[in-house]
Amino acid sequence: MDLSNLQPAAGSTHNQNKRLGRGQGSGKGGTASRGHKGAKSRSGYSKKIGFEGGQMPLQRRVPKFGFNNINRVAYQGVNLDTLQSLVEAGKVTDTISLHDFAAFGLASKNDLIKILGRGELKTKLKVTANKFTATAKSAIEAAGGEAITL
Question: CB 3.0 to 4.6 Å from 92: which of 3, 24, 86, 143, for a disulfide?
Fold first, then answer.
């Protein structure tokens, strides 16, 4: 071992690229492999999201219409006949809660549930949901059940 064969320990150096813009003798001087002129040759360049080379971006070409209310509260509707079919299938006996709606695939776990009045309920059920229509609530209570609003 002498000064003529010294080298760094294996794995200790990571960057073996040529150093850019360090004079003509380096082979990467002048434009530093960026080419001549244009946005990409300049320092501080970063392409904006949706940039299409100066062409009008798709997001601005497409016509806009309508209105989305950011305060809208969306409910996942579940009808009484669906509850009755769960009872007949033997999946539900006396109570059904928000967790059960997600388990049976009627809604996702974060959905707000609203019980709707289509069909009829023949079984006494204790139903827990975020909202009930008036007809659904009266039908549940008429069958001897209980409608619990969260």
Answer: 86
